[in-house]
Amino acid sequence: GFELLYQPDVVRLYLSILTESQNFNTLEAAAGALQNLSAGNWMWSTYIRATVRKERGLPVLVELLQSDSDKVVRAVSIALRNLSMDRRNKDLIGSYAMGELVRNLPSRQQRSAKNLEEDTVVAVLNTIHEIITDSSENARSLIQTQGIQKLVAISKSSQSPRETKAASHVLQMIWSYKELRNALQKDGWNKSHFQVKM
């Protein structure tokens, strides 16, 4: 029955595909499968999230954030967001994936090095939001990767209301950590950068 989907062997199979394949469609499909299996709060998805970590799948997914394929970056970002619902995964993803996630965000000068679509930028922003929620340490990691500049630029100048809203949610979450405000202010940021009108 459907329980076969949730066996460690299935996770190993998807991770093997993600490691070995060069085909963007195959990579997107395998990341999408992990994304779906790890979604939600039911018993099996909790199990899948832990299994992906135990099978050393997180570094495989983080590496795929460097893909030249918009759809692969999107599927991997959403998979990482779902996987970060597990606390241990969240800590690891915050430590090791934040730089790659931030690199996929557009800057003032350009959309991003890969010119990612709106849906992908929003997926990356939502993943960052999930990773920093309930984790000032991950928010600190975001600050250290120069993510604030990109987030402020998106919130102030993006042509996409969805990107603006997603970036604003991340900024508000960062500002909610009072212990980070001194460091932010030393870098020249103030409350107005984080309390964006939507």
Automatic annotation (TrEMBL):
SMART domains from the UniProt entry: ARM
Pfam families listed in its UniProt record: Arm
Domain of life assignment: Eukaryota
Major location category of this protein: other
One annotated Gene Ontology cellular component of this protein: cytoplasm
Plastid is among the record's keywords: no
Keyword terms: Cell adhesion, Cell junction, Repeat
Protein name from the UniProt record: ARVC protein
Taxonomic source organism: Geococcyx californianus
Gene name for this UniProt entry: Arvcf_0
